[in-house]
Amino acid sequence: MSKSIITLLDKALLPAAVMIFGKFIGVAITLRLFNLPWTVGQVANSVFSNGNIIRAEDLKTVISYSDLIMYIIVALGMVIILIRAIYLHNSHVKPSLVARLANYNLLSLIRDSYDVYHSAAVWLIFTWVANTIVIINGISGQSFSWVAIVATLVSIVATLILFQDIYKEIENIKRKPSDYQWV
């Protein structure tokens, strides 16, 4: 297997765990926030014999807000990666920022293109996977449609910001190809 594929798989573990964790946290927060009753009981025709039981009239609220919370958590991960790509990328980090980071012994925050864009690709994929889940729930009527609209708009903006950074990187390579290491 190539180094890039192994790196992508390795970097995919955190966003996958964040997405699953975000959904569980979203359900717990929604149940608590809206003070919705739920129980653990026997579920017929299920792989698992026990499961959470939520009233049918509360299900749309739980799914909508848990989707929103899951998406927000995944989107925050993407925002962190975008900040790293825009401000902490070794090919275009500002010297004043390097000096400030050096004062606090934080130069390890600066990343190379390989690390930045592999992480960005994985988080972008998971942002769109979370968005797809929200859209499917919205289209099927299990979730409020505004949640899907908001998630889609945020995903589009994150994608455009990342593509703009990649475009700037390509322009930098065209202007100064000798500044880059070619393996």
Describe this structure in words.
This protein is mainly α. The chain has one domain (3-23, 60-174). It contains five helices and two strands, in the order αββαααα. It has helices at 3-33, 56-87, 95-103, 113-139, 145-175; strands at residues 38-42, 50-54. Strands 1-2 form a two-stranded antiparallel sheet. A hairpin with a 7-residue loop joins strand 1 (38-42) and strand 2 (50-54). Helix 1 (3-33) crosses helix 2. The longest helix has 32 residues, at 56-87. The model has no long low-confidence stretch (mean pLDDT 88).
List the helices and strands and how they pair.
Blueprint: H1 3-33, E1 38-42, E2 50-54, H2 56-87, H3 95-103, H4 113-139, H5 145-175
Antiparallel strand pairs: 1-2
Helix pairs in contact: 1-2, 1-4, 2-4, 2-5, 4-5
Radius of gyration (Å): 21 Å
Number of helices: 5
* Neighbour order of strands in the largest sheet: 1-2
Detail the poorly predicted runs. Answer: none
**Main sheet summary:** 2 strands, antiparallel
Shape, principal axes of CA atoms: elongated
What is the number of independent domains? 1
Would you report the number of β strands? 2
| Alpha-beta content class | mainly alpha
Helix-strand pattern, N to C? HEEHHHH
Query: What is the residue-mean pLDDT, rounded to a whole number?
Result: 88
Terminal CA distance:
18 Å
Strand content: 5-15%
